[in-house]
Amino acid sequence: MLDTFQGLPVHVLLLHATVVLVPVTCLLTVGVAFWARVRSLAVWPVVALKVVVVWLTAQAGESLERRLGGSPAVADHAEIGDKLLFFAIALLVASVLVAVLHDRGRAARLGSGVVSAVVAVATVVWVVRTGHSGAVAVWQDVVASTNG
């Protein structure tokens, strides 16, 4: 489905959106939890954006993995990347909790905010881990074979 676009792997194009938009949506999720002004502007777009971006990137990554074959570094990246979808879903759940509980009192707002902050930090860490494993899969042999 999401294999190539104008000769380039779609995964390579989408991963940049993932690397930027997932941490931004993590910040927005925490912002929505703790600041009414951000909540009024961004609560539902944040919920929708994060899962769509991660899901599309994962689909494109699976197409690229089939095209490239199974080197150990690519397999490691694919395994780590597959877990990113679970982090995105956890962040989606946290976002929905924030959206639903924001008018249920201070304790519910604070609780959902703390949950969203913890999930957001874990998600950003996993995005970095996923991105690093992908960079290793693509660039480690290339850099090792050049004169530095």
Description:
By secondary structure, the protein is mostly helical. The protein contains four helices and two strands, in the order ββαααα. It has a two-stranded antiparallel sheet with strand order 1-2. It is elongated and about 60 Å long. The termini are far apart. The model has no long low-confidence stretch (mean pLDDT 83).
Tags for this entry?
single chain, 148 residues, mainly alpha, two-stranded antiparallel sheet, 4 helices
Topology pattern, helix = H, strand = E: EEHHHH
- The average pLDDT score comes to 83
Instruction: Report the sheet-strand fraction.
Output: under 5%
- Unreliable stretches (pLDDT < 50, length at least 5) are none
SS-based class: mainly alpha
Biggest sheet features: 2 strands, antiparallel
What is the tally of beta strands? 2
**Multimeric state:** single chain
* Whole-angstrom Rg: 18 Å
Q: What is this structure's SSE topology?
A:
Layout: E1 4-5, E2 8-9, H1 10-34, H2 36-68, H3 72-101, H4 106-144
Antiparallel strand pairs: 1-2
Helix pairs in contact: 1-2, 1-3, 1-4, 2-3, 3-4
Summarize the structure.
The protein is mainly alpha-helical. It is 86% helix and 3% strand.
